[in-house]
Amino acid sequence: MDNLRTFLQESGVQFEIIHHEKQIRTAQEGADFFGIETGQTAPALVLKSEKGYFAMIVSGSRGRVDLEEVSGILGCHQLKMASPKEVREITGYTVGSVSIVLSLPCIVDRGLFRYPFIYGGTGEPTSTLKIIPSALEKLNQVVAYLD
Questions:
Q1: What's the CA gap between 94 and 25, in Å, rounded?
Q2: pTM for the complete prediction?
């Protein structure tokens, strides 16, 4: 967590790390807890392809993601969700706590840009990162967008 905080401070982006007693497991739980729209929640999912691993940061209001569509956007032939073990090995985080600031190439949901702030993982189950959506582009290696 200290590494993330230092990185964010050095980047100059506006952010807040919010601590809470228990893990937030769904977009609806996050929306209820923070008093925001579900679309402002930004879970980070890890995908595996023949080209390697990707992070996909989506709006909590998106619903189910069409991996075939994402595969086409990335130019991959095989794309699937990474297993919990792979997520831990690749990111150092557990599923449900993956940071929205990470070193993997990222696919970002354009729906997140409708909001002044978004809320996503920090790598710690009991804390959440609040940032402006454009910070995702500054802090990550964005390789594609979901419309």
A1: 12
A2: 0.94
